[in-house]
Fold these 2 entries.
Entry 1:
Amino acid sequence: MYLRQGTFSHLPELTDAEIGAQVRYALLNNWPVSIEYTDDPHPRHVYWEMWGLPLFDLDEPDGILAELTACRNTFPQHYIRVNAYDASFGRQTTALSFLVQRPDHEPGYLLTRTESDDRRQQYGWRPYATEQPVGRRYGG
């Protein structure tokens, strides 16, 4: 399974140079950038673990790329994404969010179906990865 989340999910994996170009674009728009990681990428699981604090007042993407490299080295089998926030509307709004790393093996999701009143079908799903405890998912 290939998880499709974020702005560039339809494109091939971004190189570090392409990630740097997107971060530069965010910085030119005065959007603070943050790095997040998780081993449970369920689409409704929107609050991932933050890698440090959002990086404010940067002019060049080098600092963010260094933090990204540190996060990748610490969590080699996790999903990692870069977020850029736009506060121009008076509230924090996600302007850009994209995956920069995924595990080597993505096990997929289990679709569950239950019948409710009047024989209506209700569907739900859960990732196979959550069958393992946190820290042991994706072969970690």
Entry 2:
Amino acid sequence: MAEFVTVDRNDGIAVLRIARPPLNLIDLQTAWEIAAAAEEIGADPGVRAVVVYGDARVFSAGDEMAELARWTPEQAEAVVKDLQNALGCLSRLPQPTVAAISGYALGAGLELALGADRRIIGDNVKLGLPQIKAGLIPVSGIRRLSLLIGPSKAKDLVYTGRFVDPKEAEAIGLVDEVVAPDDVFEAALRWARQFTAAPTMALAAAKRVFEAGTHGHDRARTEWAGLFGTEDQQVGTRSYLVDGPGTVGFTGG
């Protein structure tokens, strides 16, 4: 039973919540619980899309520095791979994912959100990777941040550890949508609902191609060919041919 993470499912949408008040700081246990919840969600064929959320006050204010301050070099070496994998777990989910961000997404919290397919924030949110100010670096987010906003902007954020406001975050592509603070969760649900009748195997294939990065062109060939013979491909292509796009409800098979 998880202590700091909950998962609710409703109408094909899973809501993964970080629940470690007051700031939803991510310690090792919370990271493990997030990763375990994501693995469970990813294996559930009934889940078509995923919303990741903290609460109305804060998504996650970052790393649990009290824990990091106690670790020896040997302890850090022993857990770094698991921690890195946990913070990148959203990128491995086969379903479309959206991070609904209120208040703050800092450090490990922002690293986690970077693995989502979409980030929606309130217009009062602060984002950043301030680990450099603790003599550390982001363990999971540097490569993904660089791919998202470009190396130059990513270096600025990582090297300075400065906070980014909503206007800049949207301008540089760090987030995808800025809404009123009270609308963050509902906006994320609206985006997720687009996929409740979508072709899940094709979406999962597309996500794997994106995740392949520089090898995506080669990966696309394998994924494209592998979709032939699936129920969704057969029904979808026939429906598209007869009635045009968007006229069929996919079963996920």
